[in-house]
Amino acid sequence: MNAAYLYSLIAVVLLGLISYAGAEAAGLEVLFGVIIPYLALIVFLIGFANKILDWTKSPVPFRIPTTMGQQKSLPWIKHNKFDSPYTTGQVVIRMVLEILLFRSLLKNLRTGFGKDGQKITYKWVVWLWLFALMFHYSFLVVVIRHLRFFAEPVPFFVTMIERVDGMLQIMLPNLFISGVVLLAGASLLLLRRVLLPKLVYISRPADFFPLFLIIGIAVTGLMMRYVSKVDVVRVKELTMGLATFQPSIPEGTIGGLFYVHLFFVSLLVAYIPFSKLMHMGGVFLSPTRNLPNNSRAKRHVNPWNYPVKTHTYEEYEDDFRDKMKEAGLPVEKE
Amino acid sequence: MAETPKPEKLFQNIDHSLPDEPWEEIPPDLSEGRFCYPTKKKNLNYLDLPATTQDEWSPADEEWPIPDNWKEIIHEGFKDRLEKYRSLKIFMDVCVRCGACADKCHFFIGTGDPKNMPVLRAELLRSVYRNDFTTAGKILKKINGGRPLTKQVLKEWFSYFYQCTECRRCSVYCPYGIDTAEVTMMGRELLSLLGLNINWVLEPVANCFRTGNHLGIQPHAFKDMVDFFCDDIEEITGVRINPSFNRKGAEILFIVPSGDVFADPGTYTFMGYLLLFEHLGLDYTLSTYASEGGNFGLFTSSEVMKRLNAKMYAEARRLGVKWILGGECGHMWRVINQYMDTMNGPADFGEVPKSPITGTVFENAASTRMVHITEFTADLLRNNKLKLDPSRNDKHVVTFHDSCNPSRAMGLLDEPRYVLNGVCNHFYEMPENTIREQTFCCGSGSGLNTEEIMELRLLGGLPRANAVKHVHDTFGVNMLSCICAIDRAALPPLMDYWVPGVGVTGIHELVGNALVMDGEIERTMDLRFEPLNEETEEDADE
Amino acid sequence: MNDKNKIIAGLIIFFVVLLFPFWFNLIFGAADAATAPEPELTDKAKQAETCVAETDYMRTEHMQILDQWRDMVTRDGKRIYKAENGKEYEASLSNTCMDCHSNKEKFCDSCHNYTSVDPYCWDCHTYPEETE
C-alpha cells in the first residue's frame, strides 16, 4: 500500500553503490572525499541559516503557549511553573526539559477500545519516547566521538566520552555502545513506520529517506570498525586535511566503504535544511512552547497590528436609541 | 439526514481500520449531514467580507461559487499569512510525522477517519505549502509530499477544517508543540478569502457586530431577559435584584457569553452570577453593547476576531469602570487571555483589578484588566466572604469538564475545582487522561455546534461522554459541570444520547443554589424551579 | 522583533560549536596535523622485511592477530603461530612483536595517539624501555 519506503530504500542503496563504485573503481576519491563533503557543509550552513532567518523574519503576533498545567493566578493556588510558565526563566526550564528530555513525547497515550466495545481506554506508552531518546542521544555521542578524526590533538572530552562509551570492554576493537544503540534506535523508529498501520498511512518518502540514510551511515560505520576494517590512520589523514583546509587523498587504499560512509553523511548534512530534519532548529522556536503564559499580566505586542472597522458605541446607539430609551436604558445622546 | 442510530450501534460502527488508497486520493465526504451549511451571503456583505459568487449553494454541489482567480487569491493569502505568522511557517516545516498526535483527536477517535488525525489535517495545508513555497517541493513535487491546489483540495479543506474544534489537545502531545488549532485557523482564514464560511459561525458574527452579541439580542430585549431572571430569582429566593445596565461610574463591568442570557441551562448560571453579586453588594454593571464575551470571530479570522472584541475595551473606557469581570466561557477566555490585550490594548482605563470584597489584587491580570469569574469567586471562598449551604446541591453528584480553551490556552484548572468543592458535597473527577490539560472537547467547539452535523458532533463528543459515563457508572455522577457556554449548549444533547441521566450545569448555578442570601425565604427549589432534593419532592407529595 | 537578536545569537553559537574542528585545529592543532605519523621501523624490523603478514593487512588487523594469539596461548596453550607465508612464529607480544618493534613510542603509540586509540595491551605487558 505504501511504497514510500521502497523508493527511499532503493534511493539510498543506489546512492551507496554509486559512491562505492566511484571511489573504488572510477578513481573519484577527490570528488567523494573532498569536493562533496565541502559542498555538503556549505549547503548546510547556508541552507540552515537561511531557514532560521526566514522563520525569524515572520513575527510572533500573539502569545499562544499551550498551557499544560495550572496558571499563575491566586497566590495560594499552586502554580505549575514548568507546564504553564510565567517568567522567562520558567520558559527556559520548560524548553530545556522539552529539548533534552522530549517531555511532551513522554505524555504519549495509546487510545483504544475496551473489550465490551463500549469503553474508550487510554494507556500510557513510552516506546516512541524511548526510541527517540535512544536515537538522538546515541547520535549525539557518535558525532562527538567522531571528533577524534577532526581534531589533533584529540580533545580531552572526546577521550572521556570514548571511555564511557566503551566501558563494557567487550569485543575488539572495543565496542562503543552508542554505535549499536544508534542503529537499534533508527531501526526501531523505522519498524514503527513499517509495522504500525497508522504510521504506515501517514508516512511519506521524506520520512523513510533520512531513516534509511542514517541506518546506512550506522551500518557502514559499524562495518568499518568491526568487520571489514579500514585504515583509520589514513582516514584521519583525509579528515584532518578537510578540517585544516589542506585537503588531500592519502596514499594507499582506505577502502570504498569509507567513501560510502562519508557520502551518506554528506547527503544527510546537505539534506537537513530542506527537510523535516529542520525540527532541530524549529523545536527552539515553537510559539506554543517558548512563550510564557502571562499575556494578561504583560502586554504582548503584535508588530503588524492594524486598525479595523468596528461597530462603535455611537453607531450602536444610533441603531437602537429609541428602543433603549423606551426600555429605560441610559443613552449618550437624547 | 439519516436517522442517528442507537448509541451502542453507533459506537460499534466506529471503524479504525485504514483505507487502502492513500489519503490524497480519497475525496472528502460532502454528503448531507457531513458538512456545515455555508453562510448566507447577507452576513458576508454586512461585514464587508469576501463573498461567494452566488448566494444559494451547497458544499455537496460539484461546482462551487468561487471566483475564477481563486487559486491566486489562496496563494497570495497563504503567502501573506506565512509572512505574518511564524507559527505557521514552523508548523509547516518541522512536523516529522512521528504519529504522537494521531489518536489524540476526539474527531479521529469518534470517526476513525484518517484525515481527522491532526497530522493529516495539517498535511492538507502542508502539501500545498510544499508545492508552492519550498525549494524541495518545487523540484521533487509529489515525492516530497507536495500537491498542487485543486478544487478537490479546497473541498477537503472545507470539510476537515470544519471538523476540527481548535481544542489544542494534539498540541499537548506534539514534541514540537505543533498546534492544529493554529493550522485550522489559517485554513479557515484562507477559505474565508473566497467567502467559504459556515452559517453557524458567520450569522452570530454578523449579529454580534450589529447588536453586540451573537444571538442578535437587542438592548431592550437584553434588559427584558435579565429582568425575567430577576423575577425567577425573586420567586425562588424571595430576594429582588435590580442589576444596572450601561451604568457609568460602576466599579466593574461584567461581561458574559450571551448564550447564558439566552438558553437553558446557561440561564441558570446567569442567575447564579446575579445572586453572587447581590450577596456581595458588588458595584457592577452589565452592558447591552458589550453584551457578548464570546467571539465567533476567532473561528473566522484574526481580523474579524479583533473587530468583535474591540467593544469590550471601548465600553469599559466609555463607562469608566476600573476593571472587567468575565463570565464562564471557553473560547471567550482564549481570546481574552491570548489575544485581547495584543489586538485591542493597551487597556487605557481603570486600574489593576482588585477585589473590592477581599482586597486581593489580581496581578496576573494587571495588563488586560480582566478577571475570570472563577478566579474571583475562588478568592471569595478562600477568604470566607460567602455564606453557603452546600447541602442544597446534595442531589447532584458532580463531575467537572475542563473546557478546552481555559485549560490549554489559559491554565485555569484549579480555580473552578476550588469553587466546586466549596459549593457542593459530592464531587468526583473523571479519569486523569481526560481532564485538565488532557481534557476532551465537547465535540461542538469552534462554531460546529450546529444541528445539521449532529451525528458528527455526537461522534466527536464521544471521548468526553465516555469518560462521563465511567464516573456515572462508578460514582453515580448525575451532573456535569463546566465553565463554557458552548459546553452548556452542546453537552446536554451529548449526555442525552450517550449517558442519559446526566445533566449539565455551569459552576455559578451551583454557587447560586448554595448561596444563603440576606432576607431570603426558605428555599425549596433550585434555580431550575426543581425541588432542592428528591426527598422534598416526596414530602411535598405526601 | 526583540527576539531576532536572540535567535541570531543562538544560530551563531550553534555554528561555532558545529565548526569546532576548524577553529580548534587552527588554534591548538599541530602544523602537520594533516600528515599522519609514519610508524618508525627499527633496523631489525627493516632487515626482517616482512612482518607476520602483509603491511596493509597488519595496519588494519594487527589487533585481531594479537587477540587470536592471546587466546591461543592462554586458553589452548599453543605457542606457535603459522603465518600465511608458511613461516612459524612464537605467539608473543613481548618476545616476537616487540623484538623487532622495540620502539613502542615511535611505532605503536604514534598511530594510536593520532587516532585516539587506547589499547589495553600494556595493562599487563611491560615494554622494553621500561625494563631497562
Overview of the structural elements:
The complex is a heterotrimer of chains A (about 325), B (about 550) and C (about 130). Chain A is mainly α and about 325 residues long. Chain A is built from 13 helices and two strands, in the order ααααββααααααααα. In chain A, about 60% of the residues lie in helices and about 5% in strands. In chain A, strands 1-2 form a two-stranded antiparallel ribbon. The longest helix of chain A has 29 residues, at about 30-55. The relative contact order of chain A is 0.16. In chain B, strands 2-1-3-4 form a four-stranded parallel sheet. Chain B has a three-stranded parallel sheet with strand order 5-6-7. In chain B, strand 3 (about 325), helix 16 and strand 4 form a beta-alpha-beta unit. The longest helix of chain B is centred in the middle third of the chain and has 19 residues, at about 220-235. Chain B starts with 6 loop residues before the first helix and ends with a helix. In chain B, about 60% of the residues are buried. The model of chain B is unreliable at about 535-540 (pLDDT under 50). Chain C has about 130 residues and is mostly helical. Chain C has two domains: about 1-35; about 40-130, no CATH class. A two-stranded antiparallel ribbon of chain C has the order 1-2. In chain C, a hairpin with a 5-residue loop joins strand 1 and strand 2. At the A-C interface, helix 2, helix 6 and helix 10 of A face helix 1, helix 2, helix 4 and helix 6 of C.
List keywords for this structure.
heterotrimer, B: about 550 residues, mainly alpha, Fumarate Reductase Iron-sulfur Protein, Chain B, domain 2, 4-stranded parallel beta sheet, 3-stranded parallel beta sheet, about 45% helix, about 5% strand, disordered C terminus, C: about 130 residues, 2 domains, two-stranded antiparallel ribbon, 7 helices, 2 strands, about 55% helix
